Amino acid sequence: MIKKLSIIACLALCVVTAQAQHKVISFFDEMGVSRIQTEEFSKAHDTIVMVDHRIDDVIWSRYVYRIIDMRFKQNYQLYFPVKPDDPDYRNLFKVIVEAVVDGMPIYPANTENIKPDFKKTEPFAKHQIPRDAMMVVDQTEDHTDDDDFYDVARSNAMLVNYDSITDMMKFNPFSFEDVVKNQIKYLIQEVVFFDKHTSRLHTKIMAIAPLHPVKISTQDSTQVMAMLRESIMFWIPFDQLRPYMAMQYAIPNRNETKRVTFDEFFQKRLFTSYIVGEGNMYNRWIPDYKGSYEEIKREQDRIATELLNFEQDLWEY
Question: In a 10 Å sphere around its CB, with 0-12 CB exposed, 13-18 middle and 19+ buried, how is residue 93 labelled?
């Protein structure tokens, strides 16, 4: 009997201890408002997972370049909201702009090649960020006869302004909505690699670049690549952007309690994209050697299938 009472007492003590260690938080606060916004964002930048892959363990790798188009429904959470004064949410472009204001370095586009080169290229200084690096020029329509059209390219309303007196960057919200409505594409550089230590294929985004909107009215591959090269605003090392993305939730999609930060959105690959190039000995991208859109689509499917099948093919005997 004493043994049974001792067991019951130990179990009760364990339950009490577990309840004391676990803080129960109600879904509604004292005002009756739902507790959805996290209160631990101040520590979010310290919780970013960085896996250290040893160079000796990586036995195969391949560079891939993709475009993330905001017009695809799966990417809407990166595009909205477009208002600069939303109290809870920011879109991806505003997170980038505010990171630049905070001092995150951005790098100019490579004039000879679309690929970023952070080792040989110096980042923009605060006072040297060009107008076209922080502005989106609407090149899709002709508004020369529209007197009421607000063209940010002809205004002084840059998204980021440098104050020489305080040596600080400032965000200008007044032109944000006119600018961001045309910010519909991003170019990312990623590496797909096989780690023999984990025996699996990994994908890591290395760089991201916002693209100017350019209306392509030709199927000439040379002109297509020239337009793509000219449309790059600037390059950002992705790991330097991650701490800022980890501090901001993406706007929910049909479920207010299903929250993911922008960093989780990319790490879980919740976005959709299409391939525009890969690393190859000829230093060519798909439009360089495929002329029609049908041929480009077939080549994109071929590369995607090769990447998908590579891991499975390693284990065939």
Answer: buried
Strands (DSSP E) found in the chain: 58-69, 160-163, 168-171, 185-195, 200-210, 236-237, 274-278
CB 126 within 8 A of CB 104: no
Contact 123, 109 (CB under 8 A): no
For the whole model, what pTM was predicted? 0.81
243 membership: H or E segment, kind and range: helix 238-245
Tokens of 101: 């204001």
Among candidate residues 66, 65, 214, the one with its CA nearest the CA of residue 132: 214
Contact between 218 and 224 (Cβ < 8 Å): yes
150-194 pLDDT per residue, tens: 454 444 457 887 777 888 888 888 878 888 888 899 999 999 999
